[in-house]
Amino acid sequence: MVTVNLEGIVKRFKDVVAVNDVTLTIEDGELFTLLGPSGCGKTTILRCIAGFYIPEKGKILFDGLDVTNVPPNLRETGMVFQNYALWPHMSIFDNVAYGLKIRKMEKEKITEKVNEILDLVKLEKLAERFPYQLSGGQQQRVALARALVIEPKVLLLDEPLSNLDAKLRIEMRNEISRIQKRLDITTIYVTHDQEEALAISDRLTVIDKGIIQQVGAPVDIYSYPTNYFVADFIGECNLIPGTVSSIDGYITLETDIGVIRGVADSKEKKFKVGDGAYAAIRPENFDLHSTSKEANHIKGKVKYTQYFGKINRLFIDSNGNRLMADADPMKTINVKKKEIDLYAEPDSILILSEG
Questions:
Q1: How many Å separate Cα 227 from the centre of its chain?
Q2: What is the pLDDT of residue 221?
Q3: For the chain, which terminus, N or C, has the lower number of CB atoms within 10 Å?
């Protein structure tokens, strides 16, 4: 296990700043996710940690040891690539054994270690097959086994599930989590899939344009986003613009759809009357059956619905603002084109600054 520290990392490609002053600590044994949209710099950060890129500024430390300029083959990391990068002419056994052979390990020891890791990823019966004979999920397990068999100090995974279908992605993320916890290996995981990041991570960071937006546990990132970008990127969220009209424990916004009262996104953030701000309301925090006539009471018309099994998502027009609200499907079968009343408790609403 290793603690990984990034200190003020900057990486440029010509005039483009791909990573801008990134400072992070990944604890030993932690599964830490770099999350963000395509082109945000998350894979560049991972490749800097692996040693494929050398940052122009900053340091990368493994357990306090500066590895910024150490070649990839000497960093003791294992990497799983998006396309798996398996040798097509080699059997599964030989693909997994390749790194050990390069290290000139004894044949008997190689056999022992490869069989052990294939058992861990549940491929022990497929050792003599070739990659083309395996499913996408099985190939992903081979790539994971090949990275783990060399016993790396840090496991790096770059969008490892992006080529799999939805059901298989869920199965494989559960497998990765199981194996990571069993081995207790420091793991850094890159994805643009919010659900995947929330499900698999001990902690994660949200990145935009090479800049860290927020770091925290999944529940904190989802429940307490620190700015508009995080609230909009993580899950579904109604973001309603307005102007701060009063502050009395709660923050009151005047908006186009009525008065909304909520809480600040952090104790450190200070609002004043007249500031522009957004009310962030998750769809599940709306109550469709409240008779409250106070603040946070919103009227609208249901334009259409989407059925997701446990919930029916309503898409509502309120004075030109599109809102989303989740409801019991059995109670909202015939709500399309109907007028509807929404309410959200003040404590469930975050007030975010415009910045």
A1: 16
A2: 95
A3: C
Cβ pair 53, 11 in contact under 8 A? yes
Handedness of CA 111, 116, 120, 123 (dihedral sign): positive
Query: Which residues are CB-contacts of 12 (< 8 A; sequence separation ≥ 6)?
Result: 18, 56
**What token pair was written down for 25?**
């600590």
State pTM to two decimals: 0.91
Residue ranges and CATH numbers for the domains of the chain are 4-228 (3.40.50.300), 236-353 (2.40.50.100)
The C-alpha torsion from 29 through 35 and 40 to 44, rounded to 10°, is: 20
What backbone phi and psi angles, to 5 degrees, belong to 118?
-65, -35
Nearest alpha-carbon partner for 205 in 43, 32, 48, 7: 32
Residue 180 burial (10 A CB sphere; 0-12, 13-18, 19+):
buried
CA 119 centroid distance within chain: 29
Half-sphere exposure of 164 (CA within 13 A, CB side): 23
Q: Please name the residue that has the structure tokens 């086994």.
A: 145
The residue behind tokens 């270690």 is 113
Q: Is the dihedral of CA 233, 234, 235, 237 positive or negative?
A: negative
Instruction: Render pLDDT for 178-214 as a digit per residue (tens, 0 to 9).
Output: 999 999 999 999 999 999 999 999 999 999 999 999 9
For residue 84, which phi and psi values (nearest 5 degrees)? 75, -35
DSSP-assigned letter for residue 287:
B
Spacing of C-alpha 252 from chain mean position: 31
Whether the CB-CB separation of 214 and 238 falls below 8 Å is answered with: no
Q: Residue 56: helix, strand or coil by DSSP?
A: coil
